[in-house]
Structure formats: structure tokens, C-alpha cells
Design brief:
single chain, alpha+beta, Immunoglobulin-like, Maltose phosphorylase, domain 3
Length: about 950
């Protein structure tokens, strides 16, 4: 939406009388950006909202239910409000404003709307809640306490001998959100229980089961869908602050543990994340798949969603887990539907996001979808470059999706289809190992630089590494090196490394429990005891101190909020939800899948517990046997008992010695037909094995941004002429050196900023520069690539007349022609469209431009064709300059060429998005933008 339109819509919310024509809400990080705090009218143009706010640096706006209207203090910059001061608000979109809160307290947001053109905002603290003096453990028969640093967690139960216990858990650590410092939860007759000799361990498992049940809902809702009204769905919501079903969150949670305990609800949730085309949508000629278009949904996000983000294929992790756990009569119909959706998804991902030159899929890192936190600072102004980069995690998910589709096709008798996807999977696995592996680091790169560079970056993420291991993309030796090399802080493994300067805690400087859970799975597979112990500690500590399985934690302190009064912009995690679904799934999987070693497969149950000597000694103590009871798998109720060896101070793990089912000897893979209902699986562990204890430990001061664990800022190329680059340090100090890349290959290492000359410069090449801390070796993202080849501008044409701009082009079925361009020299070229897409903000929406571009020679033959992406670009009231699309690669001979653009599709074409509140939703699909021409850039 254009800035002028936004202004008009927002101003219209206030009538001349000072009353609101449209209800407006206080929305921010303190309430999950929801609509539970409406502005209440107090008379004489005054509106108020009172809210209990926890400590932190909270972004906020005043917005309507569908975000069509926004009020901010300054549309050009964020403002930190001071209590009692007055601020004139602008009734238009802009960056969020901030409130800094030192202690949990009630705040009143008052808005005087008596002047419709300039409502006044005042914010004041009105009180603090009294501290509770009650003892929540009073009268309980059994209790135990654990110390975590300076904090104490206590668990108690009225009756330790009860078949189904009730637990009370309290903590002295200040909680993230306002509320009591204790919680009570109960074991249920329809859920599994644990008896381990440790009241704390038993209780934390019961907490995870209880939180899974809290997330099991009959209705879901999100302010951006269905007018904010509830949608009937027997599904899993995402957490206390997230009441919708999101593809990746659900799928990772299901894979980690939920699918075993509630496979039907997982199936329902997965099915909710499938959609066909809207009624009346005619499939564009180049779009692949069936006419109905049934496929996996890529949720709203960066640049307007798919294919800037392509990790929707994470869905297969949940689907495979669901199929392994569903009853036989339920599996066949879901498998058929899953295969149909996967075929449509995979075939169109191949067209829209596959780069044949590298053999990799393009698209954002999986779940690391706050681009400022884990990409170069300049990427937010050039999302086409984010879209063309390749991510390890996302490519591993594509590999898994292809392999899973091949398996489903083979099972259904579609042998040609199975062979096709198996071949694609094999080739992709080879490309991942060739393109991402960094031998000097002993790990895979998390992502490549964008087009015209494409080098693997010295950036690392724990989810990508762990997924590569658990899917088998990493062989045994590489898996062992990864586990030994990935850095762990004192509280566990951060999700990215090194950290980014100037960014608050969220993905940056953070531990996410579900990622830790995948790291634990990887460590157990390859018997890395050190990494496994760190993961066990992280997961148990986080759930204990926070009284919940939280969304994320600060990586050095393990706190749910690191309060930095000197640098409030770095406070975080900026949002943090209790009972986050994938954190719950990760904890359940830790207990069932790793401690007790139970995993459902297509053929039966695998039994592979991974109990380390530290876990045996420090958690299970004097217990001789630990028991998992009332676990239901494929409708069969089972009990699992593990006989423990004596505790030892030595480091290692205990392998399985014997297994029996109801007394009969069994192997570690038990077929379904060998498993009766109400069976007891007895496991005896053997003598201690040392395993691998190698791991990398790092530490830092919580508030510092030092070179030991942070990366330098990316430099820039200030100029380039006749093979000489001028490297701008961008504020990096004397402890920083620089590396130069030509066409993605390192050509100069550890040089100083300033001028550098390429003595072997070709006629056309693209350069990028990377900063590196000399001592730690931590490296920055790459600079914006600068290319030396000839760039030819191509005008856009309307009725044969060249135009400076075509506005709002791209309705389904429309075609657009560009002027002719003469190529004097043959070679490799990149064709890009100059455009501006104002449909939504850069981090939201489903309206990223996705079109088919064709370059034809003078005889009308296709010289190059394919999908180009035109993601959202920043909205600027003064009129943002055009940006450039992803490139279409072309190898050309000298001659005259013409360019034509036609429709493809984006996520707004799907029926599931027909109630979306913004562009591409209720008003119909949106695949439109302004076109300013095109360019043909010589690359080689």
C-alpha cells in the first residue's frame, strides 16, 4: 500500500468529534502484538488502555485489528517514550516506538484524540503488584529443591505414592511475564508418566505433557486471518502468545515429540497447512502440478513469503512422524494426500527456487526469519539478494522432502515419480556437501552470499548443523567434527555463531530449546557425551527456572530477559512465549526419544536410549530402575523400564545390553507385530563407554560485544575502477583484516582496508569483501557485490512506447513487454527487473512478486526463461527508489534480444489466504508492483 493511502486510511479512524470511527488497540511486545488491549473511551476525546508490563524494552504501536491503520510518534524513526511526557502521534505507518520498564508494573497509555490530525500520547506507570507471601508447597508430603546459580527451584507433591501425581513448582528467578512465581499441574490418566527416583525429573516431564494439552485447542485465531475471529480446528496452537498454526513451528514440534503422543491432532494441524488455489484462479502456463494446486503453505513473512522463504518443506518432518504414529486405517488416506501436496510443492519449488548452477535451493534460513538478526545489515534494503542466497537448513529440508516424496511414491506404486525425486535428493545431498562444507571450520556454512557472489559464508547455525546430521546429509566423520566444533556457551549452544553486533536478543545471542533438542538428537546418534550433557542441562534448566518450556533464552545467562539499561536497544529476547509448541515437543522428545530411547518408525519401534554417566549420577541418583508408563503408540499402550548400572564419576554413556518384550528377548528394532497391547519393554544397560567428549566451549560477558564471540560489521566497496577496489572498513577497528572475493572465490586474504588491486582482473567480474577479526577469526557477512561488467538498461513498453514506469502491474494473466536490447559481446549475463513492491512491509505478507521472465532472440527463440522474484521493498513517504529483482541467468551470443514478463503465482493465490487482512487476502490475490524497466548485466 502506498504511503499516502496509509495516511489517508489511518486519519480516517478519528472523527471530527475526537471519537474513533474504527476501534484501535494498544499492540506491542508486551502483549504479543495482539488485540487484547483496546483503547477504551473515557469521554472528551480521551482513550486509555491499562496493561501489566514485565521488565524489558518493549516495542509498541497503536493499530487497528487488521493493521490497516497505525499510529506512531515518528514515521521515520523509533522513539523511546518517557513517562509523563506528551507525544504527538502521526496517523500513519512507521517503525515501532519503545517503552523501557525496569520492574513488573501497571502502565496506562492515554491518547487524547480531540485533535483528529494530531492525537497526543502519554504513558505513565500507575502501580506495582504486591509480592505474594503464600507458600505454594504448604502441606505437601514430598519436596525437593535445586539450585541454579543464585536461584532456587522447588518441586513438591501432596502424595509421592499416588498413581497420578499433582506437582507444584516454584522459582526464585524473576519470570519473563507478570504472574505468580509458582505453578501447579497434574498427571493425566490419558497421558504418559515417568518415575525416575527424581521428583524434579518426573515433574518436568509432567509439565511438558500438561503444556502439550494446553496447546491442544478446538479453535485457533490470528489477528491477520478471518477478521481476527476464531477458526474451528482441532489443532495445536503455537504457544501462549501465538494462537495460530504455523507450518515450521508445528512441523518441528511434531517431529521432536508431539506426533507420538497425539498423532491425530498433528495430522489435523498439518492438513490445515495445506491449501489449493482459490476458486476462479487459472493456473499460469509455466506453473507445475495438478489443477487444484494443493500444496504446503509458506506462512507470511520476509518479502511477502514464498519463494523468498522456502522452508515450508519442513512440513515433511511432521508428516513423516505423523504417519509413523497414526493407526493403520488412518495412514493410507493421509499418505495419499501428503504425496499429492508434496508433488505440487516440489515441482513448483524446483521452478521458483532451484539454482541449477549450484545444485541448491534458494531461500531464507529456516526459522531464522528476522533478517536483521542473522543477515548482512544491507539485506533489508535488497530482499531479492536474501531470496537468491542459499541456506543450509532449508536445503537439508528440501533434501528430506525429496527423499520422503520418493518413499511415498514408491509405496503407492508411482515408480517413475519415485525415481525422479530420489535422483533429485541424491544430487542435492552431493551439492550440499560440496557447496556448504568449510573444511577449516569443521562445519557447514549456514548460508551463501547472494547472487553475483554466492560464496559460502563463515556463519554457523545449530539447527542447520543438527538437521544435516539427523537426516544423514552429514556422514559419520563430518557429523563428529560438527559436534566437536560448534561453539557452546555456559548455558548451551546458541542458535547462531558468531553473534551479530547491534542486535537485541532473539535469534541473535539466543538459545532456542527446540534447536537444542535437535542438537541432542545429533549428539546421541554419534555418542558425543559432552554435547549431549550440555543439551540435557539446557532443556531441564530452562523448564525448571521458567516454570514453562519457553520460546527462547539469552545464551550467556540463560535468562528469559537480559535487561541492559545502558543499551536498551539490545535488551531481549524481544518476545518470549510460555509453552512454545516446539519447545514442548523438544522436551517430550528428550525424555521419550533420548532418555528412554523410544521412537516409532514405519516398521515398528526403535529402542536406543542415550543415558550418560552425568545424567545417571546427577539426575537419577540412587534409583536402580527408571520407568516410562502409559505411553500409547499406534493405539498400543506400553511400559518402558530401564535397569540402570551403578553411578560413576567417569565420563561416558551406557549402551544397551539386553532388551525384552514381556520377558521375551528382543532386538533394538521391535516390529509392530511383535508388540502386543499393554506390553512391557525391559532394557538393561551395559558397562560404561567413553564416547566422544570433544566440544568447543566459549564464554563472554553478557553485556559485551567483543571480538571473541561476535563478528565484525560487514565492510563495503566504496568504489571500483580498472581492477582497484577501495575497501571501506565501516567502523571496524585496527584488529580487523579483510578478505576479497571475485565471483565467489577468495582472491586476497587478510589485507588492510583501503585500496587493493586485482592484478588478474578479467573484463567482467563481481567482487565482494568480508571483514575478519585477526585474533578470533570470526568473520562478517559479505559486502554488497560490485560488478565491473557492462550494464544495459532496457525500458518497459506500453503499446510500443517506452515508459519510465508502469504502475501497479501484475494482475493474473497480464503480460508486460520491454524494449529491445543489443548485445555486442557474447558471455554470461544476468537479467533483472527494476521494480518497487509496496504491497506490505518487508517482514510481512503473502504478496511478494513472483513472475515468469523470458528473454527471446531476434527470431523469437527462447534464450533464457524462468521465475524471478520481486519481494516487498521498504515503504518511503518520499517515494522509494526502485530495487532490482533476482537475476535470470543467460548465456548469450551477440545479437538483438527482447524481454517479456508474465504471471506465475505466490501464496496469495491459495484459498487458505482468502481471509488474510492485508494485500493478497480478502480483496483477492496480489502479485503486483511498479515496473521501472530492466537491466542486462554482463557477468563473464
Amino acid at each position: 500500500m502506498a504511503a499516502a493511502a496509509l495516511f489517508s486510511a489511518s486519519a480516517a479512524c478519528i472523527a471530527d468529534s475526537g471519537t474513533l470511527a474504527t476501534p484501535m488497540y494498544l499492540r506491542g511486545g508486551f502483549n504479543g502484538w495482539g488485540i487484547d488491549h483496546p483503547l477504551a473511551y473515557k469521554g472528551k476525546g480521551l482513550y486509555q488502555a491499562d496493561i501489566l508490563v514485565s521488565p524489558g524494552y518493549h516495542g509498541f504501536k497503536v493499530g487497528s485489528k487488521d493493521w490497516s491503520s497505525e499510529w506512531v510518534i515518528d514515521p521515520t524513526a523509533s522513539v523511546t517514550v518517557n513517562p509523563r511526557a506528551s507525544y504527538t502521534m502521526r496517523t500513519q505507518a512507521g517503525p515501532e516506538d519503545y517503552l523501557f520498564v525496569r520492574q513488573t508494573s501497571t502502565w496506562r497509555f492515554s491518547i487524547d484524540a480531540s485533535d483528529p490530525a494530531a492525537p497526543l500520547l502519554r504513558v505513565a506507570q500507575t502501580g506495582t503488584p504486591p509480592a505474594s507471601t503464600e507458600n505454594p508447597h504448604q502441606g505437601h508430603a514430598a519436596s525437593v529443591a535445586s539450585k541454579y546459580g543464585g536461584n532456587t527451584v522447588r518441586w513438591s507433591t501432596p502424595d509421592a505414592a499416588a498413581a497420578l501425581r499433582s506437582y507444584t513448582q516454584s522459582t526464585t528467578m524473576p519470570l519473563r511475564d507478570p504472574g505468580p512465581q509458582s505453578t501447579t499441574y497434574r498427571e493425566a490418566a490419558d497421558g504418559p508418566t515417568v518415575r525416575s527416583g527424581s521428583l524434579a525429573f518426573d515433574a518436568l516431564f509432567a509439565l511438558a505433557v500438561a503444556e502439550m494439552k494446553q496447546n491442544a485447542v478446538a479453535q485457533i485465531k490470528d489477528g491477520n486471518y478471518n477478521g481476527g475471529a476464531a477458526i474451528d480446528c482441532a489443532c495445536f496452537e503455537t504457544g501462549e502468545k501465538w494462537h495460530y498454526v504455523w507450518t515450521r513451528d508445528l512441523s518441528y514440534a511434531a517431529d521432536l515429540g508431539l506426533a507420538m503422543l497425539d498423532p491425530e491432532r498433528v495430522r489435523n494441524s498439518l492438513d490445515f497447512k495445506l491449501s489449493g488455489y482459490r476458486a476462479g484462479i487459472e493456473r499460469a502456463p509455466h506453473v507445475a502440478g495438478s489443477a487444484d494446486g494443493l500444496q504446503i503453505i509458506q506462512d507470511t513473512g520476509t518479502g511477502g513469503s514464498w519463494p523468498a522463504s522456502t522452508d515450508r518443506v519442513a512440513w515433511v518432518l511432521g508428516a513423516e512422524a505423523a504417519l509413523d504414529n497414526l493407526a493403520p486405517q488412518q495412514r493410507a488416506p493421509f499418505a495419499a494426500r501428503a504425496l499429492r501436496a508434496l508433488v505440487n510443492t516440489l515441482e513448483n519449488d524446483r521452478l521458483a527456487a532451484f539454482d541449477a548452477a549450484s545444485g541448491l535451493y534458494m531461500g531464507e534460513q529456516s526459522f531464522l526469519d528476522w533478517r536483521d538478526q542473522s543477515y548482512a545489515a544491507w539485506i533489508v534494503g535488497d530482499l531479492a539478494s536474501l531470496a537468491s542466497s542459499k541456506a543450509l537448513s532449508t536445503n537439508v529440508l528440501h533434501y528430506k522432502a525429496l527423499a520422503f516424496a520418493a518413499m511415498l511414491a514408491r509405496a503407492s506404486g508411482e515408480h517413475a515419480q519415485a525415481a525422479r525425486y530420489a535422483a533429485w535428493a541424491g544430487a542435492l545431498k552431493r551439492s550440499i556437501n560440496q557447496r556448504f562444507w568449510l573444511e577449516d571450520a569443521g562445519m557447514y556454512s549456514s548460508l551463501t552470499a547472494p547472487h553475483f557472489d554466492a560464496a559460502p559464508l563463515h556463519k554457523f547455525d545449530w539447527l542447520g548443523q543438527a538437521l544435516a546430521i539427523v537426516t544423514g546429509v552429514a556422514d559419520g566423520e563430518r557429523a563428529r567434527r560438527i559436534l566437536a566444533s560448534y561453539p557452546h556457551g555456559p548455558m548451551g549452544a546458541p542458535v547462531i555463531y558468531p553473534q551479530q553486533q547491534g542486535m537485541p536478543v532473539y535469534h541473535n545471542r539466543a538459545i532456542w530449546p527446540f534447536v537444542t533438542a535437535y542438537g541432542l538428537k545429533a549428539a546421541a546418534m554419534h555418542a558425543n557425551v559432552g554435547v549431549a550433557d550440555a543439551a540435557y542441562d539446557t532443556l531441564m534448566r530452562g523448564a525448571a527456572l521458567n516454570l514453562s518450556n519457553m520460546e527462547n533464552l539469552e545464551w550467556i545467562t540463560g535468562q528469559p530477559l537480559l535487561l541492559d539499561e545502558r543499551q536498551p536497544a539490545l535488551i531481549g529476547p524481544v518476545i518470549n512465549s510460555k509453552r512454545q509448541l516446539w519447545s514442548v515437543g523438544g522436551y517430550l522428545g528428550m525424555v521419550i526419544g533420548n532418555v528412554f530411547g523410544i521412537e516409532a518408525t514405519a516398521g515398528g519401534i526403535d529402542v536406543r536410549p542415550f543415558i550418560t554417566s552425568k545424567l545417571r549420577r546427577e539426575v537419577f541418583g540412587a534409583a536402580k530402575v527408571i520407568t516410562l508408563d502409559s505411553l500409547t503408540v499406534r493405539g498400543k499402550r506400553i511400559k518402558v523400564r530401564i535397569a540402570l548400572p551403578d553411578a560413576t564419576d567417569e565420563q561416558g554413556w551406557f549402551p544397551v545390553k539386553t532388551i525384552s518384550v514381556d520377558g521375551a528377548p528382543a532386538t533394538q528394532s521391535i516390529a509392530w507385530r511383535q508388540l502386543p497391547d499393554n506390553a512391557t519393554i525391559d532394557i538393561t544397560l551395559g558397562a560404561l563407554r567413553q564416547g566422544d567428549t570433544t566440544m568447543r566451549r566459549v564464554d563472554a560477558a553478557p553485556y559485551a560485544q567483543g571480538a571473541d564471540v561476535f563478528a565484525p560489521r560487514e565492510p563495503s566497496i566504496a568504489g571500483i575502477a580498472r581492477g582497484t577496489l577501495r575497501i571501506d572498513a565501516n567502523g571496524n577497528g585496527a584488529d580487523t583484516v579483510y578478505n576479497v572475493y571475485r565471483d565467489g572465490k577468495l582472491v586476497a586474504a587478510r589485507i588492510a582496508a583501503g585500496a587493493w588491486t586485482d592484478r588478474n582482473a578479467p573484463a567482467a567480474a563481481c567482487y565482494a569483501v568480508e571483514a575478519q577479526f585477526a585474533a578470533s577469526g570470526n568473520r562478517s557477512h559479505h559486502s554488497v557485490p560490485r560488478c565491473t561488467g557492462t550494464a544495459l538498461d532496457i525500458p518497459v513498453m506500453v503499446d510500443g512506447v517506452a515508459q519510465a514506469q508502469v504502475t501497479d502491474w501484475g494482475k493474473p494473466g497480464e503480460r508486460l513487454r520491454f524494449g529491445a536490447v543489443d548485445v555486442a559481446q557474447g558471455g554470461e549475463y544476468g537479467v533483472q527487473v527494476r521494480y518497487h513492491n509496496r504491497a506490505n512491509q518487508i517482514n510481512l505478507g503473502i504478496s511478494g512478486g513472483v513472475k515468469w521472465l523470458a528473454l527471446k532472440d531476434a527470431a523469437g527463440r527462447i534464450a533464457a526463461q524462468g521465475v524471478v522474484q520481486l519481494p516487498h521493498a521498504r515503504i518511503d513517504r518520499t517515494g522509494a527508489p526502485p530495487v532490482i529483482s533476482t537475476p535470470l541467468a543467460a548465456r548469450l551470443k551477440p545479437g538483438r534480444y527482447r524481454l517479456e514478463m508474465s504471471d506465475f503465482y505466490n501464496m496469495s493465490y491459495l484459498q487458505s489466504n482468502s481471509t488474510f487482512s492485508a494485500a493478497g487476502g480478502a480483496d483477492g490475490p496480489s502479485n503486483k508492483f511498479d515496473v521501472h524497466g530492466a537491466r542486462l548485466l554482463r557477468l563473464k
